[in-house]
Design goal:
This protein has helices at about 5-10, 30-40, 60-70, 80-95, 110, and strands at about 60, 105. The protein is mainly alpha-helical. It has a domain at about 30-40 and about 60-113. The protein has a two-stranded antiparallel ribbon with strand order 1-2. The radius of gyration is 16 Å and the shape is globular. This is Aminotransferase-like plant mobile domain-containing protein.
């Protein structure tokens, strides 16, 4: 069964009117872009024995998101509140509607959407 746009609209209570949102799924420079959006990004994974990792995922572990964005600080200004809201929506979308195959990571492309 496929998730439709109407399903997403009902789940998120967001309207589906207007122009569609089209975005690039290119992951080049994703850490820098993530830092521009939410002021931090996960550390690069360490590679053992000086080898090269075959695949570097363009996503953040849910554990990292929870450790850094579980609670918005009291008295936070609007910019910080918006950052935490963006990360929360990214978390919800990545966990429910567009989960990745591992179930452990939030794909980067949904943060920039």
């Amino acid at each position: 069964m496929t998730v439709t746009l109407q399903d997403v609209s009902m789940i998120t209570a967001l309207p589906i009117e207007g122009k569609p949102l089209c975005m690039s799924t290119d992951s080049e420079g994703w850490r820098q872009q993530m830092e521009a959006l939410i002021s931090m990004s996960p550390q690069e994974p360490e590679v053992e024995d000086g080898g090269k990792k075959d695949r570097v995922p363009a996503d953040a572990p849910f554990i990292w998101i929870a450790a850094n964005f579980a609670h918005c600080p009291e008295g936070a200004d609007d910019e910080v509140i918006q950052r935490y809201a963006r990360v929360y929506m990214w978390y919800v979308i990545s966990r429910t509607i567009f989960a990745d195959g591992t179930g452990k990571n939030a794909p980067w492309m949904w943060l920039k959407a």
